[in-house]
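Because discrete structure vocabularies remain unfamiliar, it helps to consider an illustrative case, giving the amino acid sequence and backbone structure tokens:
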Amino acid sequence: MSTPISTGRASRALFVATILGGSFLLFLVQPMVARMALPRLGGAPAVWNSAMLVYQALLLGGYAYAHWLGRVPPRVQAAIHVGVLACAALWLPIGLAATQLPADASPALWVPWLLGLSIGPLFFAVSAQAPLIQRWYAVASGGRDPYALYAASNLGSFAGLIAYPLIVEPTMALHAQSLLWSGGYVVLGALVIACATLLPRGVKAEHVAYTSPPAGRARVAKWIALALVPSGLMLATSTYLTTDIVAMPLLWVLPLGLYLLSFSVAFAQNRAAADLITRIAPVTILLFGGVMIGGYQALPYFNAAIALLLLFMAATALHTALYRRRPDADRLTGFYLAMSVGGVLGGVFAGLVAPVVFDWTYEYPLLILAAGVLVPQTFLLAPVRDIWFTARPAAFATVIFAIALLIGLRAWGPADLFGEDHLGLTFLVVALVGIATIGARLPYVVLLASALILFGGYRSLALSYAGDARTRSYFGVYTVRGDAAMRELDHGTTVHGIQLRGSPARERTPTTYYAPRSGVGRAMLRLSATARVGVVGLGTGTLACYARPGQHWRFYEIDPAVVRIARDSGQFTYLARCLPAPSIRLGDARLRLAQEPSASLDLLALDAFSSDAVPMHLMTREAFATYARVLAPGGVLMVHISNRFLDLEPVVDAAARAGGWQARRLDYRPAPETPGKPSASLWIALTRDPRTMAALTQGDPDWAPLRGRAGFVGWTDDYSTILPLLKGF
């Protein structure tokens, strides 16, 4: 056998830089390609679900390829991998293939084909870096522990994740981003070649054979489970936060970032932080898990912080358990392959299966419970440990009695005992019982399940059993609430429509953001009797009650679940009473409008909400050009930009200036006692005909010029960022 030649700090730094750089590029390319594809593919969930599966399949394929390479000598591995990198470089500069998809293209077929053709070889080659470079380091260093390099890999992933929305996207157009990534790929190739030169020469095939025993099926299954739960919990946390706590831009970055950081802590050489977090994680899961399920919205940002802390603690503890069960370095690639399988399964469960199977984010409490089942546990107090060892049946019976008491109080006690006013008392009882169960897994899991139900799970179950009160799709959870006087549709934490009840006249009354004194209401009331109207975003169908005989209306809606709620369920009757046979175009609005004839609309209302924000690809200069083509010469475009977190007015102002539009804003702020349930709303009216604008605003002083922002760069399909638009920053 040859002597290893990599022993110094410089050699280790080279391997660290290579694995960090590969992970950085891997997490940089995903949002970059998503931005490139959005105008062409649209925002339908089938598109992005297919894209997610493509990424996961390529990542799994890269890990499997790295595992297969372990069968040949290190220098041969290097030659093969450098060849793979060189072949993949033929796809540089990175970008989407210049292929036009058919109008009726099925996302399940065309999205994998397009992404595979565009970035498949590059993504596959880079995804193999993490396990492959670690194994090379173990060989080159004479058997040193390579697992600490995985911490560097996840730091690189975290850096790529943060860099894109905070640095790359705000400062570079997509073409420049493509060149940046392509240059990074070339640098990565050079680093891989440098690492290959440090591999020992003369290692024969027989010396590549495994020296440690293979992992049994039970051990591999445990690896998969310990990787599956944090992966699924990360996605479930993002969904739960935006559904039940607060919907705000860039929130998805935080759960994914903490998930990646948990790997860095769990696989670090210094074990102090990982061991401490693992010891207290069962306490965090028990106490915070139940509280989060309550969905208390009095302190949304505090609750969001608690949910993120819960995710980080649980993920770190489970990844630490994974680290403790790691194999020897010669079995490293198989270990990472199993981890990759678990990560894919967790993502598929939370991202694809759960929205179809559940009508609420039940995957969140289920994965919290699974984390409690798997998390390492030790007794917090020696006396408690002694009781469980010497009097286990009695201790278990005491815990069951305490749980039964809590359930009895929930069922037959005061109605507000488990409300926010008494939350502290219930929390204290669960905490005291919890201290006695941590270390005894079965009682702990029983208590955790009970807490999840007591603190809010029962309310979710009650709504699920209420029939059609709640609907879920890939776009989120829709909840219908109301009484004899009104009915409300909520999309997560955002109100999407309210209908008054009691008489036909009340049920025809436009409410909320669409009230007669709102910007869109005033524009609708000025339409001619033969106007052709398009509405992007159906909601409850409120705007349909402005329709008059002789007018022609069509709606554009991306989510079939919304169509069922507004038209088919009978829960809202705007369409039934005001426009009984509506024309509804299902699919991404921009793609559908691109198929419409020119000058086919007199008014187009853009009201497409997504997590309390207008989808980015509907607000670019190219999108506004599509709206201008579809509108008649004197047509009006109404854009709804009410938003709790983003000031979208500069975006519309920049698009108006670039496209030659006349534009006015109407910021409607009704008094609290105003009848008809109107809501504060901000609408912008745009037209290319000055006479149309004069007719719309004549005698109405509420219409005001837009407030642009000096130096703001308008959105295009090649460039957009929300950072300068965040309110309060």
User: Anything to note?
Assistant: The radius of gyration is 29 Å. Residues 9-41 form the longest helix (33 residues).
